[in-house]
Amino acid sequence: MDYHVKDLSLAEKGKLRIEWAEQDMPVLRQIRERFEKEKPLKDLVIGACLHVTTETANLMITLKAGGANVYLTASNPLSTQDDVAAALVKYFDIPVFAIHGEDRETYYKHLNMVLDKKPNITMDDGADLISLLHKERQDLIDNVYGGTEETTTGVIRLKAMAKEGVLRFPVIAVNDAYTKHLFDNRYGTGQSTIDGILRATNRLIAGSKFVVAGYGWCGKGVAMRARGMGADVIITEVDPLKALEAVMDGYRVMPMEEAAKIGDFFVTVTGNINVIDKHHLEVMKDGAIVSNSGHFDVEINLSALKEIAVETREIRDNVKEYKLKDGRRIYILSEGRLVNLAAAEGHPAQVMDMSFANQALSAEYVYKNAGKLEKTVYKVPDELDFEVARLKLNAMGIKIDTLTQEQKEYLSSWQHGT
């Protein structure tokens, strides 16, 4: 088998961790049981660029159970769990091309190794596979039926491509499914970000001023969890509607230029560049802890911080100290990459269960509709979204009401009045 992982001797530990996560992924389990019987993905080649974690492993196992030939690489060099990568190769015969901490050259080498397998469906977290296909590997695009995209940043990139008319195949925006962003982005990012900060720093959050840049679903989750731990939460935003919502939710809202002067903790969750810029870093107080849970390592202007720093040192795992000329110290977590994955283990399996159920069902949908979809970005079909919610409720032992025929007729008619 063609693969590139750190050490196959780590496989046993990885296998146990995959099994542990699987216990909390009942929706994916139900889909896998159906896939094993029906083989809806038979002979399909799927190239996946996702965070190589225990939850992702269970998605790969599900896709393979459906008959697909699956090839996995990492969407972030610091999120790869080497034991999980080894276990997928050794125990599940799923080729993985990912090593924790790999450099940029190796990262793109691994992307290309997956594309070399001529995938029929791409599965992205950040649109790197699709971007590479469109920029450098266009000869392979005719093999592709479509793709799926896991995260907000990737969806933004893909919608920009579709708007410019350069997207060469249809993509399902898994991130936009209700059973993804309402739960994964809010509860998953909220909990795992706090988990990463605590593992990296062991600092007390209660009583601190905790600045969250961006009040999308991820920002809402981080703010909610920080407030729950006793922090004074401050929101920075560029969207007036989201800023207003944050105010109505009881948070203080101010520009980053003001928040930078008083914050103890900072988390960026915007997907944009230089959200914390040089002039913000210059006014931060001694000991400020700065992290990112958005996407890529671009939200904090690290180049500018290196310019104004006179000394740096790695003071703890995932904590780098930058000392400024006047003696103030700023601490960057996980090199500005996703702190919830680099310093912790990413989202809990319970929420990734729904996200990855959407991935599996969307891959099936793309395959079933090959050649019928336009070259644009689609939302996850409502029937798939509702099916994931139904399966999740079923796994939780929760029953809900159903509309009577009379109620259905009332809602669909304009003649009943009020």
UniProtKB/TrEMBL annotation:
Domain of life: Bacteria
Reactions it catalyzes: S-adenosyl-L-homocysteine + H2O = L-homocysteine + adenosine
GO cellular component, one term: cytosol
Source organism per UniProt: Venenivibrio stagnispumantis
Keyword Ligase attributed: no
Protein name per UniProt: Adenosylhomocysteinase
Keyword Kinase: no
S-adenosyl-L-homocysteine hydrolase NAD binding domain mapped to chain residues: 185-346
Residues annotated to bind NAD(+): 151-153, 185, 214-221, 237, 272, 293-295, 340, 347
